[in-house]
Design a protein that fits this description.
270 residues, alpha/beta, Rossmann fold, seven-stranded parallel beta sheet
């Protein structure tokens, strides 16, 4: 049990298992009090009791289904109003391996609501308070399929591409206001995600990382000032070159005339 001064209240969504539960454990041990958000009340209370006993931190369970507007609104209000909150981990999410020909559109819509809408609304709720205080940290959990878009379900990949792009924009808007933004891109990680997504065999693959290693690496990346953290990427230079290429091509989009490859000038002259 610890008696160290609290580093503030960390909010972790999807906290009852997997990556979220490991974040809860590590942040409590780093001196944060916790607001743990998840749907599974039994698991949530068990985790909260264990961490409170082990760390001496104040751990509050917050039962919520972030796919439900009323539950999401309650958490948004807490983020706006509680000045003790210093860190938000947007981890809650669901995935799929189904193609557009086999997936159910209602399930895809629910995925968008959780992976995109909830994450966005919670970030919008937290950011103004952090800016007002001149400090705060937002960690958004994306995925490597946000780049490797063909790897899994298209809606899932697109939702994680959104999180990555959103993180770049948040950096632009908030970095000079004392708010730290980190976007984490896990690869395959050994959690119940794969059971829900419909491909449980991935949990035991030789290319699958443990949730503990993923979170520990991500937090070290945060300590080191990484804006985008990809724990499974062995050569950071690969990401640096990717980013340099993305930013370089972005400067080439602003042209009033289409490229000559479309032959419009020749066609118009004829």
């Amino acid at each position: 049990m610890t008696t160290q001064t609290s580093r503030g209240l960390a909010v972790v969504t999807g906290a009852s298992a997997g990556i979220g539960a490991v974040y809860a454990d590590r942040l409590a041990k780093r001196g944060y009090d916790l607001l743990l958000v998840a749907r599974n009340e039994e698991r949530l209370h068990a985790l909260a009791d264990r961490l409170a006993n082990e760390t001496g931190r104040r751990i509050e369970p917050f039962k919520a289904d972030l796919g439900r507007k009323e539950d999401l609104s309650r958490l948004e209000a807490r983020l706006r109003e509680d000045a003790s909150i210093t860190l938000l981990v947007n981890n809650a999410g669901i995935g799929s391996v189904a193609s557009i020909l086999t997936g159910e559109v209602e399930e895809m819509d629910a995925m968008i609501q959780l992976n995109i809408t909830a994450l966005t609304r919670l970030t919008y709720a937290a950011a103004p308070s952090f800016v007002a205080r001149g400090s705060g940290t937002i960690i958004n959990i994306s995925s490597v399929v946000g780049i490797a878009a063909e790897a899994l379900n298209g809606v899932y990949s697109a939702s994680k591409s959104y999180v990555l792009s959103f993180g770049h924009s948040l950096q632009k808007d908030l970095a000079d206001k004392g708010v730290r933004i980190q976007t984490v891109l896990p690869g395959a990680t050994a959690t119940e995600f794969w059971d829900v997504a419909g491909y449980a065999a991935q949990k035991t693959s030789s290319t699958t990382m443990s949730a503990a290693d993923l979170v520990d690496a991500a937090l070290i990346g945060l300590d080191q000032g990484e804006r985008v953290t990809i724990p499974g990427l062995q050569d950071l230079g690969d990401w640096t070159r990717w980013e340099e290429g993305r930013r370089a091509i972005s400067a080439q989009f602003g042209n009033a005339k289409p490229s000559s490859r479309y032959g419009l000038a020749t066609a118009n002259a004829a």
